[in-house]
TrEMBL record:
GO biological process terms on file: L-amino acid transport
SUPFAM superfamilies, A to Z: P-loop containing nucleoside triphosphate hydrolases
Gene Ontology molecular function: ATP binding; ATP hydrolysis activity; branched-chain amino acid transmembrane transporter activity
Residues in ABC transporter domain copies: 2-237
Keywords: Amino-acid transport, ATP-binding, Nucleotide-binding, Transport
Domain of life: Bacteria
Protein name listed in UniProt: ABC transporter-like protein
Matches recorded under CDD domains: ABC_TM1139_LivF_branched
Family named by the database record: Belongs to the ABC transporter superfamily.
Length: 243
């Protein structure tokens, strides 16, 4: 579904990604695991088009996309939920969804926007019930679901989520992860980045470990879990950066 070859991203003298090559498997939850600064956000931002690579290729559904703008990648089916629950806290839930919709589909008719938003309210009744409430008054988990919903409005086939569990209580992380599993069961391909390997491996089918911009380990859940159990991933699991 998504092939990444020899991807390199530099911020001035900093090599944030070095020769990253991966195959993202369709209809699976793919984890990108790494400590702070490993390059997870840079990788997701490069896939969605927010960051330009210095080198390398990204092909999505057989088409090279590394040179096409963000909005075209959205149209091709790539949705991105950025790190840090970015929403307009002093706007209503409804307006946040409208803004999210028009950010991704600037030319669409308002009627279509409202139809799509109503579908979201059916899928997530809590958002429908709180549609006139300021987004900042929602709980952390509800805010995360609102942000994911805004990305779902463009009906992505591939959803990128940057540290979706960050700052959430364990019970809320369970809810967000459950939602990701439901999306996968409807055919979506998902990439999540997480700092905590143990957390990511609860729901991921396959994963990649990034260290200082490089893929150092990759494999399916059982392989990565065996590394975790034998302490082979302890630096990642404990959050100790090897930098
Ligand atoms: N806009 C930027 N300008 C300069 N350096 C950057 C920029 N963004 C990231 N970096 C650097 O690139 C490297 C990779 O950062 P990145 O944010 O991709 O890592 P990360 O694994 O997502 O970490 P975090 O969990 O903190 O978001 C780090 O050394 C970081 O300091």
């Amino acid at each position: 579904m998504l092939e990444i070859k020899n991807l390199q991203v530099n911020y001035g003298p900093i090599n944030a990604l070095k020769e990253v090559t991966m195959t993202i498997e369709k209809n699976k939850i793919n984890a990108i695991i790494g400590v702070n600064g490993a390059g997870k956000s840079t990788l997701l931002n490069t896939i969605s088009g927010l960051v330009d690579p210095d080198q390398g290729e990204i092909s999505y559904k057989g088409r090279q996309i590394q040179n096409i703008p963000v909005e075209k990648r959205v149209k091709l089916g790539i949705g991105h939920v950025m790190e840090g629950r970015r929403l307009f806290k002093d706007q209503s839930v409804h307006d946040n969804l409208l803004i999210g919709f028009y950010f991704r589909n600037p030319k669409e008719k308002r009627r279509n926007a409202l139809l799509k938003i109503n579908e979201i309210y059916k899928q997530f009744p809590i958002l429908g019930n709180k549609q006139n409430q300021m987004a900042g008054t929602l709980s952390g988990g509800q805010q995360q679901i609102l942000i994911i919903s805004a990305a779902l409005l463009s009906e992505p086939d591939l959803l990128l989520l940057d540290e979706p569990s960050l700052g959430l209580a364990p019970i809320i992380i369970d809810e967000v992860y459950q939602l990701l599993e439901e999306l996968k069961s409807k055919g979506m391909t998902i990439i999540i980045s997480e700092q905590m390997a143990a957390l990511a491996l609860r729901i991921s089918d396959v994963g990649y470990i990034l260290e200082r911009g490089q893929v150092v380990k990759k494999g399916d859940r059982s392989y990565l879990k065996s590394l975790l159990d034998s302490d082979g991933l302890s630096s990642v699991y404990l959050g100790k950066a090897k930098v």
